[in-house]
Specification:
Length: 394
């Protein structure tokens, strides 16, 4: 049995990642904003839903295929955009995208990724989405749209929950800030993890590959690049900008970071084809609701056609079943695949996707569901309702 095969679930892969990475790098993946209330709640909220099974249904075959961003997916899961991926493993975005393709799943590349979108598209024929921002320099955003079209990206995900950076206190404590102010304890942790630190020091250059051409003075060091991109975040972005982007792109477009039914409706009215219900994995507004708790209201607001993707907190295949029953088209994961990547590179991502897929299919089988289209709200019940309706009257 290989080391990765000993991982039975996301939690095991997380522990393997924690052992392999210097603590500041692990905390950068694992942490959230402020008190990490939303980070924790995103995952625990799933436990508040019970799965209500059908019995004596023929579950000898189960249909799980769907379409997300208009693209086929073997089952209703996609991989969320995550920046700085090369920091977690030298094989970076290519490894994640290849594993996603093998599993028949959509991959999304972040604007803050460490692989050029053209290079990724050339190496990877599978369905892919680019995560975009509306920058102060609208020309930079328009340039991304043109590059994505030329490279053959199938969809865009516009992230709207980052008018400023969230307050990630774990990164402050470790000194993993911009510019880095690593503490002695952090430096020691790098020294104690040579299997990470040596390849990181000697491997391919680490930068924001999709925007580095914008900075003439790269000789001034990578920090000038981070300064440049940091200065591009625009607090004045509004719905008119979404309308503009939808026109420019004229293809599948999801707004990532929508939380309420009213904003979801507005997103569709502004030209988006879907929404990703998300609080950025609890990394931005701490106290924001758990995405799973918003699915029903968002689905009711937008109707049947748009993609409604539940992004954040998924740690078990059964979580995906619950989200679908509540009305989601699919779920999206960030940390789980990064744990897999950090734990073991591309085979680690493979292991993670295999585990989640097995859990997903097993849950459907046990719940008596032989086609994901059969799933409906009657298959899921919130604990608060179950307890109040089941308890005797005072
Ligand atoms: C290390 C890390 C980096 C991320 N970078 C980005 C990013 O560049 N753009 C973005 O829209 N979301 C980013 N996210 C958020 C993810 O896309 C996603 O919303 C979140 O991870 C979902 O929560 P989960 O980690 O519980 O699955 C990042 C998340 C993590 C953990």
């Amino acid at each position: 049995m290989t080391r990765l095969e000993r991982a039975n679930n996301v939690a095991d892969l997380r522990l393997m990642a924690r052992r392999r990475l210097p603590r500041p790098i692990f905390d950068y993946i694992d942490g959230g904003a402020d008190d990490e209330v939303s980070l924790r709640r995103n995952a625990t909220a799933f436990a508040d839903y019970e799965l209500v099974p059908d019995v004596l249904n023929d579950v000898s075959t189960i249909r799980t295929e769907t379409r997300i961003f208009g693209q086929p997916a073997r089952w209703p899961l996609m991989l969320s955009p995550t920046g700085l991926t090369r920091m977690f493993h030298g094989h970076a975005e290519h490894a994640v995208a290849r594993a996603a393709a093998r599993h028949g799943l959509l991959y999304s590349l972040s604007t803050m990724g460490t692989t050029r979108l053209e290079d990724l598209a050339q190496a990877f024929a599978g369905p892919k989405v680019f995560q975009i921002y509306i920058f102060k320099d609208r020309g930079l955003t328009a340039e991304f749209v043109a590059r994505c079209r030329a490279a053959g990206f199938h969809g865009l995900a516009l992230t709207v929950d980052t008018p400023v950076a969230g307050n990630r206190e774990r990164d402050r404590v470790s000194g993993l800030s911009l510019p880095p102010k690593l503490t002695l304890r952090s430096l020691l942790s790098f020294a104690l993890h040579p299997s990470w630190s040596l390849p990181a020091l000697t491997g391919s250059r680490f930068d924001l590959a999709n925007v580095s051409h914008k900075v003439d003075a790269l000789a001034a060091g990578p920090m000038s690049l981070f300064d440049y991109i940091g200065g591009q975040f625009d607090r004045s972005v509004g719905w008119r900008d979404v309308e503009w982007l939808a026109r420019e792109w004229n293809g599948p477009l999801a707004i990532k970071g929508v939380m309420t039914p009213a904003d979801a409706r507005r997103a569709i009215d502004s030209g988006a084809t879907g929404v990703m219900i998300s609080n950025h994995g609890g990394r931005q507004l701490d106290g924001a609701p758990a995405p799973v708790d918003q699915i029903e209201a968002v689905r009711d607001a937008v109707g049947d056609a748009p993609d409604v993707i539940c992004d954040g907190g998924i740690r078990r295949g059964s979580d995906v079943v619950k989200a679908l029953a509540l009305g989601a088209t699919a779920c999206s994961i960030g940390r789980p695949y990064l744990y897999g990547l950090a734990a073991g590179g591309e085979p680690g991502v493979d292991r993670l996707l295999t585990l989640l897929h097995e859990e997903f299919r097993r849950t459907l089988t046990l719940a008596g569901i032989n086609d994901i289209d059969v799933l409906s709200r009657r298959h899921v019940r919130h604990r608060s309702v179950a307890v109040s309706s089941g308890s005797p009257r005072p």
